Amino acid sequence: MPIRAVLWDIDDTLFDFGSASDAGIRRHLEAEPATRYIAPDEALRVWREITDAQWLRFTAGETDFQGQRRARVRVFLGAELSDAEADAWFDRYHVHFRAAWALFPDSVTALDALAGEYRQAALSNSSTPVQEERLRALGVRDRFEALLCAAELGVEKPDPAAFHAACDALELDPGEVAYVGNEPDIDAAGASAAGLTGIWLDRAGIGGRPDLVRITDLGQLPGALRAVTRFGGLSTFR
User: pTM for the full model?
Assistant: First the structure.
C-alpha cells in the first residue's frame, strides 16, 4: 500500500523544543536566580524532569493545563506560591522560552521536499492551543492539513487510538500514513503497532533498534519513504 501522507510529531522533531526550553530557563534564572540550585546544569536537569512529570499528570487528567504550569513552578522553586504568583513566574519564563523558539535547520527543507508528493498533518502529545501558537510563530502551520493533540483527543501516543484519530482526520487507512517522530517507542514503534509506517528520527545517532525504520536527519526522509513504499519496510535508512 503506497504512503500517501506523512504525519509529524512536533516537539524535538520539527521544533527544537529542548534547546528552547534550556535557553528559556537559563535566561530566566539569570534574571531571577533560584538560589536552591548551585549550578545551572542542575537547574536545567531538574526543570526538565519536573516538566516531564507534570505534563504526564496533565495528560492523565490529574490536573488542568494551567495547573501543570503552576505545579512546575512550585516544585522547581520549592516554594508555596499563590496561583497568581506561580502564573506570573511562568509568564516571565515563557517570554525567554518563546524568544528561543526555532525549527531544526532541516525542518523546512523536509516539509518542502514532501509537499508535492505527500499530504502532511501533525499529531502531538501536547495541546492544540500550545501547538497552534508554536507552529504559527514558526511560520509552518499552513503546511499541515490537520493538527491533533492529546489534550483534546483524550488519548495520547503510543495508544493506537491517537494515531487512528489522525488517520481518520485525513480519511486514509493507517497503511497509507507514515509517522515521523524523535521517540523510538512512543512515536515510531507506537505508530507501527497502530498499522502506520513508523519512522524514528534518531538525531543523536543512538541506534540499536533494528525493528524500526530509522533516519538520522530529515534529509533522509524522502528516500526512506520511497524505500518503504517500494519494499514494504526497512530497518534503517542510510
Answer: 0.88
